[in-house]
Amino acid sequence: MEIERTFVYIKPDGVKRRLIGEVISRFEKKGLNLIGLKMIRMSRKTAEELYKEHIGKDFYEPLVKFITSGPVVLMVLEGPRAVEAVRQIVGDTDAVKAIPGSIRGDFALSVRENVVHASDSLESAEREMRIFFEDDEIIQN
Ligand SMILES: Nc1ncnc2c1ncn2[C@@H]1O[C@H](COP(=O)(O)OP(=O)(O)OP(=O)(O)O)[C@@H](O)[C@H]1O
Ligand SMILES: [Mg+2]
Fold first, then answer.
1. Which of 19, 63, 81, 123 is in Cβ range 3.0-4.6 Å of 14 for a Cys bridge?
2. Does 141 reside within a domain?
3. Does residue 140 fall inside a structural domain?
4. Contact 47, 68 (CB under 8 A)
């Protein structure tokens, strides 16, 4: 199977609710390797870069405000079909529709405050991890 890398971060609600360990644990138990990890407070400029595909949508401003409201935990995960595997573990954007057993299904009720972000394709994973990680901050196993 194709080994992929994907980008995930724990949003301010997840950090505030002390779900960092729980979230990382789910990815690890699934068998994905954590190859990059850091905690930051995202600037408005960086949030705008990350979410540029959503500029102009009605949820864009509140989203940027939310994402910059507190610290976030950034990570790069590696494994077979990691992009799809991680999206499955994370669950539907709308946390009410996200199936129980997924992170959003178990820990959220909101469309905006949904605990985690996960890249939706290999292309966005590559683009998004480059915003936050230098080459030497990603650890080769
Ligand atoms: N209708 C909406 N109302 C409020 N917030 C929204 C809405 N749609 C999306 N968002 C917020 O914007 C984020 C990005 O939306 P996107 O469509 O990329 O969903 P996603 O790919 O499931 O989530 P993410 O990119 O965070 O992994 C969502 O995770 C959520 O926080
Ligand atoms: Mg998305």
1. 19
2. no
3. no
4. yes
Residues ≥6 apart with Cβ < 8 Å to 5: 35, 76, 77, 78, 82, 125, 126, 129, 138
**Helix (H) or strand (E) run with residue 11 in it:** none
Q: Looking at the 3D structure of the chain, how many domains does it have?
A: 1
Q: What is the pLDDT of residues 5-55, one digit of tens each?
A: 999 999 999 999 999 999 999 999 999 999 999 999 999 999 999 999 999
**pTM for the full model?**
0.96
Does 76 fall in a domain?
yes
Residue 98 sits in a domain whose CATH number is 3.30.70.141
Q: Which domain holds residue 77?
A: 3-135
Task: Count the Cβ atoms, other than its own, within 10 Å of residue 10.
Answer: 24
71 domain residue, yes or no: yes
How close is the Cα of 119 to the center of ligand 2, in Å? 6
CA terminus-to-terminus distance, the chain: 17
Q: What is the CA radius of gyration of the chain?
A: 14
pLDDT digits (tens, 9 = 90+) for 83-127: 999 999 999 999 999 999 999 999 999 999 999 999 999 999 999
Nearest ligand (C-alpha, residue 87): 1
